[in-house]
Design goal:
Elements (H helix, E strand, L loop, with lengths): L16 H18 L6 E6 L2 E7 L2 H4 L6 H13 L7 E7 L3 H9 L4 E6 L25 E3 L4 H16 L3 H7 L5
Parallel strand pairs: 3-4, 4-5
Antiparallel strand pairs: 1-2, 1-3
Bound molecules: zinc ion.
The site of zinc ion has 6 residues, from helix 4.
């Protein structure tokens, strides 16, 4: 079966394996966008294969913890049958928040690749450095940001532009969409 193409970036050609997996995370983010959710997508990779995919479902489920990363970790733990996601890497389109960074440490993800930096709430390196072992946890998570950064950031920017173009009532309803 042919793989579904990205709607926003149908012509994007990943230059390497890391970009290839981030491109898959972008496709997940598009599923969130389809549901009028903030476009954040996440995949977890093990042994060079996609183990699980997830996207932000906070509004759909009316649940504050339904960030793409937490949903992906939940799926992966169920699939593996262990809370330890040893040798698993995460690809997520936006720098994780504090909650997700904590869940990433707890699940012992090996490395996180993220797309866009989140200057307002990014907990990996922008506003905080949760992965730093000096905070008292003993699992070191590696990370690398800025993978397909332009595409991931544009997706967020366009989403908020779309929200701003809507009537005041829906903007008020959605203005705390990221917080
Ligand atoms: Zn989060």
């Amino acid at each position: 079966m042919p793989k579904r193409k990205s709607v926003l970036y149908p012509d994007l050609k990943p230059a390497n394996r890391v970009e290839y997996f981030m491109y898959e995370a972008i496709k997940e983010a598009e599923k969130a966008l389809d549901k009028r959710e903030c476009p954040i997508g996440c995949i977890i990779v093990k042994d060079d294969k996609i183990l699980v995919r997830a996207h932000n479902l906070r509004l759909t489920r009316g649940n504050a913890i339904c960030h793409a990363e937490v949903l992906a970790i939940d799926k992966a733990c169920r699939k593996i049958g262990d809370f330890r996601l040893n040798d698993c890497d995460m690809y997520v389109t936006l720098e994780p928040c504090t909650m997700c960074a904590g869940a990433i440490i707890q699940s012992r993800i090996r490395k996180v690749y993220f797309g866009a930096y989140e200057p307002k709430s990014g907990a990996v390196c922008s506003c905080n450095d949760i992965f730093n072992v000096s905070h008292g946890h003993n699992h070191q998570v590696e990370y690398e940001g800025g993978i397909l950064e332009e595409e991931c950031a544009a997706m967020m920017k366009d989403f908020f532009k779309m929200l701003r173009s809507q009537p005041i009532s829906s903007i008020l309803r959605d203005k705390d969409i990221l917080t």
